[in-house]
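step 4 of 6: structure.
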Amino acid sequence: MLMAETIRFKRDGGSLAADAIRTLIRAYSAGEIPDYQMAALLMAVYFRGLDDAELAAWASAMLHSGEVVDLASVPGAKVDKHSTGGVGDKISIPLAPLVAACGVRVPMISGRGLGHTGGTLDKLESIPGFRTDLSVERFVRGVAEVGTCMIGQTEALVPADRRMYALRDVTGTVESIPLISASIMSKKLAEGISGLVLDVKVGSGAFMKTPERARELARTMVGIGNRNGVRTVAFLTDMSQPVGWAVGNALEIAESVEVLRGCGPADTTALVESLGGAMLVLGGVAATLADGEARIREAIRSGAGLDRFRAMVSFQGGDPRVADDPSLLPAAASRRDVPAPSAGWVTSVDCERVGIAALVIGGGRRRKEDSIAPAVGLRIRARIGARVDAGQPLATIEFNDPAHVEHAAALVAAAYGIGPEPPATGPLVLETIGL
Amino acid sequence: MLMAETIRFKRDGGSLAADAIRTLIRAYSAGEIPDYQMAALLMAVYFRGLDDAELAAWASAMLHSGEVVDLASVPGAKVDKHSTGGVGDKISIPLAPLVAACGVRVPMISGRGLGHTGGTLDKLESIPGFRTDLSVERFVRGVAEVGTCMIGQTEALVPADRRMYALRDVTGTVESIPLISASIMSKKLAEGISGLVLDVKVGSGAFMKTPERARELARTMVGIGNRNGVRTVAFLTDMSQPVGWAVGNALEIAESVEVLRGCGPADTTALVESLGGAMLVLGGVAATLADGEARIREAIRSGAGLDRFRAMVSFQGGDPRVADDPSLLPAAASRRDVPAPSAGWVTSVDCERVGIAALVIGGGRRRKEDSIAPAVGLRIRARIGARVDAGQPLATIEFNDPAHVEHAAALVAAAYGIGPEPPATGPLVLETIGL
């Protein structure tokens, strides 16, 4: 089929054959299909969607546009976790060493922060000496020897996705569940994993603001994974407020160490246990989710997870003493409390505003090219359901450059809803799919 | 608004402000908006449509992307006719001189044939010496002195449409009623006219296969014209079989002369009278459609229309003696009848197949670059409702090169439906809009 015919076929609601999708993604990657035709097709996909068979073929074709990590030489199950992103979401950092300590290897290829959400790579790089730009060979060795390794996307993996994402960004075709799903899943499938746990965030800080949209995204991704031979399950989890008490790169590493030491925030620890438990089920080490959760708890209690974290930091060039002495992490020079304007109960926290507050003081990126300040960030002092007096701190801003601190404080103050009654609070895990 | 935001706004069903549309078309014309963003926007328009205000602004912005013909120096009303295209549609050729003879000037900028449909310019150029590539200045003089002139689109008129049409052609965004309407109307409005009659074809040979789609197209175009200060009316006319008995460039010129002489085919003559009558109403020369039709009939009877045709041919460098001696037109070397395979009544004619038959023997174009053979074509010998015996000719192919004549004959034979009962036949004019 000519590309113009393919576009019309999809535009009119047709279902593309797997073969046509393979040809199309291959030709686009090779520069044989111009961006204007791909842009029109992507907009047609925005309106018409992709069915399960199309999605599986689309993600598979994207995946095969480049190299795929070959973990065949590494024995045992390889399971990863992916989060759709939120504010204060440091889950991967304690999770991967804990799962590895329980006997399931975790090859993790992560991203950087953009806009109001942080990125695992930026957080890890706040550890002195830590490198995330390892070669694929060294990554495979890390997974084999340490049990987990965390690197960034390489040029060789899923090049079609990079080109297509840049095009989607400027053509109004980002907000498409099939295209989001195929993009995420193609990158995860390229890791050479046998199982995948998805953490799909719902709420003010998440890309998906409603459970309905989040469920659709989760189901779509689970379908792509399973059709491509990777057992995939999803959790819908609450993102109506930041995860834990820390938002900011070095601050979140310190909090991750607290989770590994068994003294982390309750919500963060609970998420690590649930997601980790599911990874152990997919890895064949635990029979049930409850069994898996118990094993993760035991790996915290015994210190096995913390040991594995030290080994990972060491393997990736970082200073493993951060696991014992958080003062080795960069620290901000100054602090500024954001006081509650009135007494009452915290009824809501607009995570997006909190994330942007961390960004304006230098902890995040507006554009991909921006550099970030690893030490700065926010400490959350009051979560939803807390009773606060007027003037009591809602959060503390940790900053170096005072230039934008008042802007950040205004954003944080505006992010908090304070009401006269204690709010109803929902569960942390809204539902699971495929487990 | 940034282009990516404009795309998302339209994608989500928003109505673009006139100012935003002007900025967007101007920036696209200037090469400041890349094709991939315009392609995504066009696909969003395909799905979301354009409302009346958006359409008027879109067509007006396209129109002002280049020069506009200035007919202010020419006194009186200037009215044009546009047909959405069909097979054997030579209406413009007798129509324009007849309307001019009745006192309403007709500035006509026409197109070339492509695919199964012929083009007025190609037909006119079968007259020895006839030129359609006049300058705009000479075109204006022709309208002033002769009362009508027929040229092709120039580079200076509506350049945005040329660029956008080329993009739509390869991005599956041709079949959009708003975009088709804006494209047609921007080119017609650029003629500097005060009134416009649209002939929207319906049926097997037309772009619009159903009355519903044709009505939607007609209403959309009428709305654009009226909102831009050009009084516009539309006829929905039957294209379930070719117009007249001749399909092919020189053959249609000869048939046009027959209409001007009062001995043309009934359907062709009736269409010329109706469309011409409406043009006289819009031009202020006739009070009613019936009055206008009577004036067109009188211009045929008196020979005033034929005189005006001779003057137009002369002005445009052609041999005016073709009006008296059709043997001066190029003629094909050979003839081949297409016999009826069985006896019965002609119940249907697939115009598209008939048009493609004319194309394969050289009378049309597959691609814009193709040259055409002016002499070749088809003579229709049996129309819908005719009783035919087995072996009686349905059509005669007039050809020079025998290479593709059997293919053409097979197409013509396949185009005819022959049944045991006489079919019900519908009216030639299905309805009028805005009159």
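step 5 of 6: annotate
 - Chain B touches chain A at residues 3-5, 7-8, 11, 34-44, 46-47, 167, 169-173, 175 (CB under 8 Å).
 - The mean pLDDT of chain B is 95.
step 6 of 6: archive
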